[in-house]
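Narrative of activities, Objective 1.

The group set out to show that a structural description can be obtained from nothing but a protein's sequence at a throughput compatible with the screening campaign. Below is one input-output pair from the validation batch, recorded exactly as produced.
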Amino acid sequence: MVDSHAHLDELDDLPETLQEAKAAGVRGIIAVGINIESNEKVLKMARANIQYVYPAIGYHPWEIREDNVEGNLTYARGHVEECVAIGEIGLDYKIKVKKELQWEVFGELLDIAFESDKPVIIHCRYSHRRAFEIVKEKRIKKAVFHWYSGPIDLLDKILSSGYFISATPALVYSPLHQEEIRRAPAEQILLETDTPVNYQGKEVRPKDVQITLREVARLKGLDPLAVSQQTTANASFFFHISFPS
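Output recorded for this entry:
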């Protein structure tokens, strides 16, 4: 298994977390960043855990402030070659950041991804259609819509465009998430935990990607081994990584 989305920089128990993940059969973890400080931590832990922790540098919409935009964009441009993806980036219409500013920042980050041929990891809470439109406008080749929970008709457009969605442990209780994973081809699904998110009282770690795997297999009526092999192959293709056996 591969955990394609984890905020490892937020953990105080990283060594134990990585040991438990390896014991659970996790072959690699994509550590996502959200701002300069977070990205620095992600790059540092990736250098300390080569061929296991893989860095994605990002600028989360929650972190956008008019006085820190240029610094974060400059950082992304300067360190893009050190990462396997740009993320977590995107839009969020529930927060008090001007939509126009979010669109501008998202567009700039997608330009960086396009120019460096990097895949993107997208956050799009209450902003699914606009996020998809901008991704298409920017001619992005590889995108994963993280924990997709938007309209079903838009999901069909996302999938027909060749993009991916990610499955999370929320599959245990979320009917909408379940419906979307049933609808998506196994070839366009990535597994993740969004560590250290708390799902109904349980704060997850990368080892809990096995929960995601189990639920995807159950919903799609597939053997868990087949799902683990397919989603690991998906992650390998998406992030351009040959995960060690």
